[in-house]
TrEMBL record:
<protein>
    <recommendedName>
        <fullName>Sulfate transporter</fullName>
    </recommendedName>
</protein>
<keyword id="KW-0597">Phosphoprotein</keyword>
<dbReference type="GO" id="GO:1902358">
    <property type="term" value="P:sulfate transmembrane transport"/>
</dbReference>
<dbReference type="Pfam" id="PF00916">
    <property type="entry name" value="Sulfate_transp"/>
</dbReference>
<dbReference type="GO" id="GO:0002062">
    <property type="term" value="P:chondrocyte differentiation"/>
</dbReference>
<keyword id="KW-1003">Cell membrane</keyword>
<dbReference type="GO" id="GO:0016324">
    <property type="term" value="C:apical plasma membrane"/>
</dbReference>
<feature type="transmembrane region" description="Helical">
    <location>
        <begin position="461"/>
        <end position="491"/>
    </location>
</feature>
<dbReference type="GO" id="GO:0008271">
    <property type="term" value="F:secondary active sulfate transmembrane transporter activity"/>
</dbReference>
<feature type="region of interest" description="Disordered">
    <location>
        <begin position="1"/>
        <end position="27"/>
    </location>
</feature>
<keyword id="KW-0472">Membrane</keyword>
<keyword id="KW-0325">Glycoprotein</keyword>
<dbReference type="GO" id="GO:0005886">
    <property type="term" value="C:plasma membrane"/>
</dbReference>
<dbReference type="GO" id="GO:0035988">
    <property type="term" value="P:chondrocyte proliferation"/>
</dbReference>
<keyword id="KW-1133">Transmembrane helix</keyword>
<dbReference type="Pfam" id="PF01740">
    <property type="entry name" value="STAS"/>
</dbReference>
<dbReference type="InterPro" id="IPR002645">
    <property type="entry name" value="STAS_dom"/>
</dbReference>
Length: 739
C-alpha cells in the first residue's frame, strides 16, 4: 500500500469533514469467503472510482430524569407572580390588549358600518334560524346578541362573525325534537307538567309547579345541549386537544355542510308550502320528510306558497347582484330586511293569518327573560349529541379565524379561539340561547364592508338590542314561509360546491370521493352519522394511500446528483449492476408486504432465484450420476455458478417518515434474502427518526452503521467501488476502515 493512501486512511472523521475535499480515494473492505464468515481486508485498486463520504455528527441527547422533568413543568406552570398573572388575564381577555391601542380615526368608520350591516342582516336570519333549531324567534335574537358581546371580549380574530349557524341549528333542532317526543309533546302545542317526562316518573324541576309548554321545554333542551357543547369546547382548549380538528379536512367539512344543507332545505319545505307536518329525525329523515310532503301536498296553503315564490323571485336575483357587484358596492343591499318588513306589512294589513290561515311568527316579547340554569337531568340524554355539535362548532370557527388572519397578516391563537367559542355557548346557555359558531357568509359580509376589529361586534349587538327592546313585537304578523325562504336562499353557497367538483377531481380524486361520501351520508343518513362516516372514511383513505403507495426505480439526472423516477422522466442515467428503489410512504405493518412485492418486482426476486439455484444444483447432481464418459451438461454448470448482473440495491428512504417493528423486520428480511444471492442492500437518506429506529431495532451492527448513507449519490458511488475486480458484489456486513 502506498504511503499516500495509508495517510488518507488514517485521517479522522473530524479532519476529513474539516479538510478541503480531502476524502480517501481508497476504501478498506472486508470480503466474505464462500466457505467462511471471516473477512479478509483488501485494498481497492486504482481503477475503482473514488467517492466522497458525508460525515455528520449527531447531537448528544441529554439524559433527562422523568421525575425532574415533571417537577420543572410543575414549577414553571404553578409559579405565581404579578407579571404572570397579568399575562394570564391579558391572554384570556384579548380585548384588554388591543382596545387601549385602538386607532379611532382609522378604524371607527369601517367597524361601525360593518357592525350595522351585519346587525341588519342578522335580525331576519336570527328569526329564521330559530325555526330550524326548533325554537321561538326571540331565542335566535338572544343567541346572536350574547355571542357578539362575548366574542368581542374573548376572541382573537378581528374579522369573523360569531352567531347562529345553519348546520348547528339543524343539529340542535334534531336533538330538541327527539327530546320533545320523549317528553310526550305532540305536534300540537300540548303542555304536560314540567315535572313529567315520557315515562311519567322523572321530575325535571322539583321546585316549580308551573306548566311548561312545548316552547319552554324546547329552549330548556336547547340551552342544556349548548351548555354541554361549550364545556366540551373549553375542555378541549384547556387540554390543548385542538388537534382533533385536523381530522376534519376541508373536503370533509365542505361535504358535511353541503349534505346538511339538503337536510335544512328539506326541513324548510313545509313552511314554504304552509304544511303542518311533524319533524322527522333519525336515519333517512330526509327521504321520510319528502314522503310526508308529497303525501300532504294537496293540503298546501296557497297564500304561503305564493308568498314563498314572490320572496324567492326577489331574494335570489338581489343576492346574485350583491355578489356580482360586491367590489363596486360599498355595502350589500339588505334585501332580507326589506323583504321581512314588506312581508310583515302585507301580512298585517292583509290579515293573511285570519283570512287564509297562514302560519305566522307570533308574539315576540321585548326585553330579556330572567336567567335560568340548564336542566341537569337532561345532560345524560344530550351529552352525546353535544360532542358532534362542539367539534363542528370549533372546527369551523378555528378554520375561518386562521383563514382570515392569514389573509390580513395577523395571527390567531387556536386554543384561545376554543375558549372564546366555548364561553360563547356556556354563558348564553343561562340566558335561553342555543349553540353558536362562526359563519362564513356573515364573516364575508363583515370583511367586505370595512371591518377592522371586533368592535364591529359591539355595534351588531347594539342593533340586536334595539330590536329586542323595541322592534321585536312588530314582527308578529311575519309569515313563517318568508323565514323559510330566507333560510333556503342562504344555502346557495353550500349548494354551489357542486360546481367546484370538476376542479377538485382534477386536483385530488381522493378528496372528491371523501366529499361525496360525507355529503351523501350526511344527507341520507343523519348529520351526526354523516360526520362520523366522513371522519372514518377520510382516515381510511389515509391508510389506503399508505397501504398501496407509489414506488419506482430511480435514475440520475445528467450532470447532477439528483435522482428521479425513470418511469416519470426521460434521459435519466442508470449504472449497470445498481438499482435505486424509492418507496413513498412510511414502512409499517400495513404496507410491509406491498413494500416487499414492489421491491422484488422492480429488481429481482431473491426467493425465486434461490429456488432456481436449488433446482439447478439438484439437476447437476443427477446429471453427474448419469454422466457417461465424464461428459457433463455445460448448461447446468453455468446456471449454478454465474453471478447475477445486479450486485447492489439502494433503497431511497427519504419518503419513509417512520418505521415500526414490522417495518424493521421487513428491512432485515429483505437484506438477508438479497445477501443470500450476493446482492448488497444500502439505505440512503434516512431521517433521524428512521435511523434511531434502525439502531434500536438492531438492523445492523455497530461497525456496519456506515452503510447508512446521507445521500443516494453517495450510496451509488460506494456501490461502484465496493464490487471486486471479478464483478462479484461485496456482501452485506462491510466496514469502512477510512471512516
Amino acid at each position: 500500500m502506498s504511503s499516500e493512501s495509508k495517510e488518507q486512511r488514517d485521517v479522522s472523521p473530524r479532519d476529513s469533514a474539516e479538510g478541503n475535499d480531502s476524502y480517501p480515494s481508497g476504501i478498506h473492505l472486508e470480503l466474505q469467503r464462500e466457505s467462511s464468515t471471516d473477512f479478509k481486508q483488501f485494498e481497492t485498486n486504482d481503477q475503482c472510482r473514488p467517492y466522497h463520504r458525508i460525515l455528520i455528527e449527531r447531537q448528544e441527547k441529554s439524559d433527562t430524569n422523568f421525575k425532574e422533568f415533571v417537577i420543572k413543568k410543575l414549577q414553571k406552570n404553578c409559579q405565581c407572580s404579578p407579571a404572570k398573572a397579568k399575562n394570564m388575564i391579558l391572554g384570556f381577555l384579548p380585548v384588554l390588549q388591543w382596545l387601549p391601542k385602538y386607532d379611532l380615526k382609522k378604524n371607527i368608520l369601517g367597524d361601525v358600518m360593518s357592525g350595522l350591516i351585519v346587525g341588519i342582516l342578522l335580525v331576519p336570519q336570527s328569526i329564521a334560524y330559530s325555526l330550524l333549531a326548533g325554537q321561538e324567534p326571540v331565542y335566535g335574537l338572544y343567541t346572536s346578541f350574547f355571542a357578539s358581546i362575548i366574542y368581542f371580549l374573548l376572541g382573537t380574530s378581528r374579522h369573523i362573525s360569531v352567531g347562529i349557524f345553519g348546520v348547528l341549528c339543524l343539529m340542535i333542532g334534531e336533538t330538541v325534537d327527539r327530546e320533545l317526543q320523549k317528553a310526550g309533546y305532540d305536534n300540537a302545542h300540548s303542555a304536560p307538567s314540567l315535572g313529567m317526562v315520557s315515562n311519567g316518573s322523572t321530575l325535571l324541576n322539583h321546585t316549580s309547579d308551573r306548566i311548561c309548554d312545548k316552547s319552554c321545554y324546547a329552549i330548556m333542551v336547547g340551552s342544556t345541549v349548548t351548555f354541554i357543547a361549550g364545556v366540551y369546547q373549553v375542555a378541549m382548549g384547556f387540554f390543548q386537544v385542538g388537534f382533533v380538528s385536523v381530522y376534519l379536512s376541508d373536503a370533509l367539512l365542505s361535504g358535511f355542510v353541503t349534505g346538511a344543507s339538503f337536510t335544512i332545505l328539506t326541513s324548510q319545505a313545509k313552511y314554504l308550502l304552509g304544511l303542518n307536518l311533524p319533524r322527522t329525525n333519525g336515519v333517512g329523515s330526509l327521504i321520510t320528510t319528502w314522503i310526508h310532503v308529497f303525501r300532504n301536498i294537496h293540503k298546501t296553503n296557497l297564500c304561503d306558497l305564493i308568498t314563498s315564490l314572490l320572496c324567492l323571485l326577489v331574494l335570489l336575483p338581489t343576492k346574485e347582484l350583491n355578489e356580482h357587484f360586491k367590489s363596486k358596492l360599498k355595502a350589500p343591499i339588505p334585501v332580507e330586511l326589506v323583504v321581512v318588513v314588506a312581508a310583515t306589512l302585507a301580512s298585517h294589513f292583509g290579515k293573511l293569518h285570519e283570512n287564509y290561515n297562514s302560519s305566522i311568527a307570533g308574539h315576540i316579547p321585548t326585553g330579556f327573560m330572567p336567567p335560568k340554569v340548564p336542566e341537569w337531568n337532561l345532560i345524560p340524554s344530550v351529552a352525546v349529541d353535544a360532542i358532534a355539535i362542539s367539534i363542528i362548532g370549533f372546527a369551523i370557527t378555528v378554520s375561518l379565524s386562521e383563514m382570515f388572519a392569514k389573509k390580513h397578516g395577523y395571527t390567531v391563537k387556536a386554543n384561545q379561539e376554543m375558549y372564546a367559542i366555548g364561553f360563547c355557548n356556556i354563558i348564553p346557555s343561562f340566558f335561553h340561547c342555543f349553540t353558536t359558531s362562526a359563519a362564513l357568509a356573515k364573516t364575508l359580509v363583515k370583511e367586505s364592508t370595512g371591518c377592522h376589529t371586533q368592535l364591529s361586534g359591539v355595534v351588531t349587538a347594539l342593533v340586536l338590542l334595539l330590536v329586542l327592546l323595541v322592534i321585536a313585537p312588530l314582527f308578529y304578523s311575519l309569515q313563517k314561509s318568508v323565514l323559510g325562504v330566507i333560510t333556503i336562499v342562504n344555502l346557495r353557497g353550500a349548494l354551489r360546491k357542486f360546481r367546484d367538483l370538476p376542479k377538485m377531481w382534477s386536483i385530488s380524486r381522493m378528496d372528491t370521493v371523501i366529499w361525496f361520501v360525507t355529503m351523501l351520508s350526511s344527507a341520507l343518513l343523519s348529520t351526526e352519522i354523516g360526520l362520523l362516516v366522513g371522519v372514518c372514511f377520510s382516515m381510511f383513505c389515509v391508510i389506503l394511500r399508505t397501504q398501496k403507495p407509489n414506488s419506482s426505480l430511480l435514475g440520475l439526472v445528467e450532470e447532477s446528483e439528483v435522482f428521479e423516477s425513470v418511469s416519470a422522466y426521460k434521459n435519466l442515467q442508470t449504472k449497470p449492476g445498481i438499482k435505486i428503489f424509492r418507496f413513498v410512504a412510511p414502512l409499517y405493518y400495513i404496507n410491509k408486504e406491498c413494500f416487499k412485492s414492489a421491491l422484488y418486482k422492480q429488481t429481482v426476486n431473491p426467493i425465486l432465484i434461490k429456488v432456481a439455484w436449488k433446482k439447478a444444483a439438484k439437476r447437476k447432481i443427477k446429471e453427474k450420476v448419469v454422466t457417461l464418459g465424464g461428459i457433463q451438461d455445460e448448461m447446468s454448470v453455468q446456471l449454478s455458478h454465474d453471478p447475477l448482473e445486479l450486485h447492489t440495491i439502494v433503497i431511497d428512504c427519504s419518503a419513509i417518515q417512520f418505521l415500526d417493528t414490522a417495518g424493521i423486520h421487513t428491512l432485515k428480511e429483505v437484506r438477508r434474502d438479497y445477501e443470500a444471492i450476493g446482492i448488497q442492500v444500502l439505505l440512503a437518506q434516512c431521517n433521524p427518526s428512521v435511523r434511531d429506529s434502525l439502531t434500536n431495532g438492531e438492523y445492523c451492527k455497530k461497525e456496519e452503521e456506515n452503510l447508512l448513507f446521507y445521500s443516494v449519490y453517495e450510496a451509488m458511488a460506494f456501490a461502484e467501488v465496493s464490487k471486486n475486480p471479478k464483478g462479484v458484489c461485496v456482501p452485506n456486513g462491510l466496514s469502512l476502515g477510512s471512516d
